[in-house]
Structure formats: structure tokens, C-alpha cells
Protein 1
Amino acid sequence: MLRAFNIIIIIIAAVTLLACGSMGKQAGSDSNSEPILIKKLSDITQAEYNAYKKYVKNSEAYVIVHPYYTLFSKPSKKLRRKLRKQPEVREFVDRQVKIENEFIESSVKEGSLVILVLPGDRYSNRYKAHLNNITQGARSVIYMHTKRKESGNIDDDQLDTLGKFMDAIGVRSVIVGGGYIGRCQEMAYKDLSTIFGDENIAISPEISSFSPSDITAATVKMFMQPDNQMNFKVISSYIKTMDNVSADKPANIRNLNLRNN
């Protein structure tokens, strides 16, 4: 059973809308023309599971929730005003996206298993084209989706399929990363903990994203070191103090010791 394992999947949530980030509406809704080149989890038969074992490195896998969605959503007027007045926040958000891009691209090159948890089941062609560009249709990358684009919750059927898949291919450890911290990331974290157990899931600050609505120029200054590198020790402490991160039980934190630019 998965609960007996020390599970760590990495879940990155770079999400936006409503509960996930108050960014506004997705730009464009031409959701049917552009195909998604990577395979959907529910389309993989149990007979095919063994073929994915070779992508599991050190009994770990990466699950990325709502990747890049912030790039293709229009900020609300209130948020646009804030970003104009506090450009440090915009720069910090851009840096988070850059780190996410580099992390996924590196995982693809290394042939590490990556599961993208997309926002709902309808996406613009621009969004799908970006996913295809980053993943290059790699066999080591597969996708599933949340119930709605504004939510990080995953339905029970997909959670059950994910659990069986991870169990079959030998995944032993899971890290929840990405964004938005305290928003959709929290929803996904709680849903996954029902499958894997609270003790087997952790948030990685390096691959987690804050909503631009939740931070200020002063927060960004606190997060940065004198050499302009992110201070993940400070960010980790900040995550632990956020009121809306797993309020009934503090989230576990795990650092990956990644370089940041």
C-alpha cells in the first residue's frame, strides 16, 4: 500500500484564477484545435505501467499542478495597479516562472517522470502550445487535471488512478511544489495527503510559487539575499507561518537545494 511508502512526488502549482490567484480570465478560449502531445494518465493502461519505471529516479517523481497558467491569464485591474506600483513583485513572479520552466525542462532532459496536473479540462491553444514547447511530447511526461481551472482539487477517480500508477512503478517519495502557496497548492496538497498520508508529502519552497496578490515589495525584499539569490530558508519559514497553509496541520517542508537565478 502507498501509505506504507515514504512518498515524494513534486507538485508544482503555478496557478491563477479566483481561489488560485485572482489574476483574472484566461486569454483566449480556443481550446479544441491544438492537440496536447503528451499522454493523459487515464489513457495509460495498467499493462503499460511497467514502461514508466525507467523514468523514476531515486524512487521519486514530479507532479506539477497548473503549470505556466499565470502566463496566459489577464491580471485584474487591481492587480495591474499593484504591479505597476511594485515592480519588484512582478520581477519576483517572473523569476518563479523562470525557475519552474527550467525545472521542468531539466527533468525532461534527464528523463525523469513528470506528471502535469492541468487546470480543468479546457485550455487555450496558446497554453497548449507552450506546454508542448516545454515538454516536446516527451514520453516521460504525462498529464491529468483538476476539477476546475480555478481549483486545485483533484477528483477521486483521478486520485485513485494516480495512486495505483505510482504504486505500480515504484514511486516512494512526494514533494508538493509550486503555487499558489496557500491557494491551489494547499487544495492539491490536502487531496494528495488522503492518498499518500500526511507524513509522506512535503512542500518544496524552491519550486513553489506565491500569488502576486499575496506578496508585496517588502515581502520580496525579505525573500532575497544580498547577492540577489532567493533565500529559501526565509521562504520556508514564511510558508510555515502563513495562516492558510494546511491550517489544521502544518505542511511539511523539504528543500531540494536547487540553484536559482
Note: The chain has a mean pLDDT of 84.
Protein 2
Amino acid sequence: MKNTFLLTKNLPILALSLTLPSVALAQTPATPTPTLPATAEKLTEQAPAKAVPVETPAAVTPATPAVETKADLDPTNPDNPAPDLDPTNPDNPAPVVDPTAPEEPKPFIPTGGMAALTEQAEIDLFTVGKDVGNTHDKASNPYRRLVQRTIMQTEPKPEYGFTLTFDDQLIAEEPTWGNATDIAKDLAPLGARAIFFANVPKVSAKTVDTIFAENRGTEARLKATTAILESRRIEFIRAIRTLIRIKCPADADGNQEYACEVYNHTAFHMNMRNFTVDSDQYKISIMGIEFIEACINHAYKAERPDWERARYFRFPFLASPRNRETQTALNAVFTKLGLVSVGETQDSKDYENESPTKAYDALAAAKSGRRYNPKEKGVFGRTEKPIALFHTKTWPNIKSGVVKAIQEK
């Protein structure tokens, strides 16, 4: 084994000596030939040593770089920057935008629902059970849900310049009164929307007076109230459903806006300013508010099953409670129902004067971004998204003034 190792070890040297050019041998001093052991000599005689050619290393092929992903392309890393988009480089062109190509149409979102809201603070206002606290987040300040806002988050300012709202009963009790359906049918062809703040049909504050006169004690009065409200449920829901299915004419893209929305104005239209939380009047008022919300919910689920509706409320006579304890209790009710209070910016006092001229003046002021109240200040203040307050029953008399203002876009 020892001799074999020596032979193997020296074979490369011998082979190299045989294959080197003569010039190289002449320049290199002769190296004494090593004496091989006997065993190695025998092996050499039997199998003459062959020259081992010197192999030339093969050309090295560069490794294919790994495909870079978006995560690998770091413009802040000089060793691995994001590729430059060069429109002149066919291997790495920048995307070419055709300025003449039509834009992809945006999905149509009808006005009036929560689907158009993007700000979380606005979404929270209409979220059932969401406590939105007090203005400026200060406990002594008014509750956000009870503040009579002069803006409706789900009503963008229309081309004609104002949001039209109508208070009180949807169904006329007298031949000379206006009906909500008449208003909707008159405004829809003009592309105008009507927002109704509704009471329950055929009841009023006088109905509550009768309940008090005929019943003694809270339990009996609340029971009588429930019976009266239930007797109006079917008629009320039917009226709401009729209104919220009416649509305006289609636009150039075939999209149609709903012509009406219906919101809460209490059942009996009682003045809530002096209510105390433990009074029967307050309890009956809350029963009415909850009843209206249940009816509106029923109607919208039937007519617009996928609709995320907003939940506005308007105080009768614009009179919110003064008592802090009552405000706190009412805020809890509004929070449970997801209600938000709304006021107005344009009040022509149509309930008193039924004047088409004053109705027009109120809306003309709105187009100039001004508020209006003929009884107090006339044209005054500023408003970005005017809200006009009218009453459903006065429509036959004020119609001409309202329509004129809409048509003067």
C-alpha cells in the first residue's frame, strides 16, 4: 500500500514533464529522476504511464437571476432599485394612456342612502346603537344626535340649489290639503327630490289630549296609545311604500334617482320643549317615535331590500327638550334607533302664510347661499347646503313658487 501511494502521488509530475514544450524544459533546471521502489518499477513496465492531459476549465455560464417581485424592488436601495419605466425601451416600456379612451363609468349610487357616505364619523351618526357623544367631546355640551343640524349628510346639493323637505302628515285629511304623493308626482318629472318628515296619519296632539281625558294612570294611557297607533300601521306603511318607490326620469346613462325619502317627525306632533323624562307625555312621544321607525323600516325592507337607509328626525315646531335629564334620556333613545336631528336653513313660514311668493323667495336666497326667514330676519347668514322647510298640507298653494325656483336652474 505504501509503494502504490508513492507511485500515484508522482504520476502527475511525470506526465507534466513529458508534455511540457522543449523550450520550457531547457529553461528549467533538470530535476533528478526519483528512484522508484521495485514494486513501482514492475507496475511501470506492465502498464506504461500515459500522459494526463491538462483540462481547460469550461466557460462559466452566468447564473440566471431570480425573477424580482414587487417586494424586491426597493427604490431606496441602490443595489436593488425599482426599474425605470422607459417608453423608448421596448423591453421595459411605460404604460401608455390613451387620452381619447373613455373613462370607465363609476358605479351609480342613488342619493339618500348610506352607501354614498365615506367618512366614518358620518356613518356613525346613522349606526344603530352607536354612541356619538357630545359636541366637541365635552360632556356638558349638547348631544350630537340632538343638535338640529343644518346639513343632511346623505343629500348632496342638487343642480337647482336646495334640498326640499316637507313636514307632517303624508295623507291629507281635508280636500284642500296637499298629499305627499301629489308633491312627489309634481317634483319627480323635474328631477327634484322630496324629503318627508312624517307624523302618523289621522292623529295629532289633540289625540293625546283625548287619551289623557279618557284614561287615568300611566299604564292605561300607554295601552290606549298602543291601540291607536296599531290601528294606523297598515295605512301608514302603505303610504310610505308608495312614496319611496317613485323615481325621477333616467339620466343619459339610464340611471334613476329615487324621488322621495321618509323620515321621523314623531307620531302625534307634540311640542317636546318642556317635557320631563318621567311624564306620560314624554313616554307617549317615545312610543310614537319608535312606532314610526318600525313602520319606516318595514316599508324600506319591502321596497328597497338592499338599501342602507339614513335615519333623520325633525322635532315638531323645531322644539327640542330643555331639561338636561330629558335630553340625556332622549339621546339614549336616538342612539338605540340611530336617529339624527335635522333643522332647516330656509323657512318661508308657509304654514302661516301659504304664500308661493315667500316660498320662491326662500329658495332664491338658497341659490345665493343665504338663509331665509321672513318673520325674523328675511335673508340672512350663509349656508352651503340649504335645507328648505315646507309643510305637506300647503302644497296646493305654494307649488307655483317652488316649481319656478326649481326650473330657474
Note: DSSP finds twelve helices and nine strands in the chain.
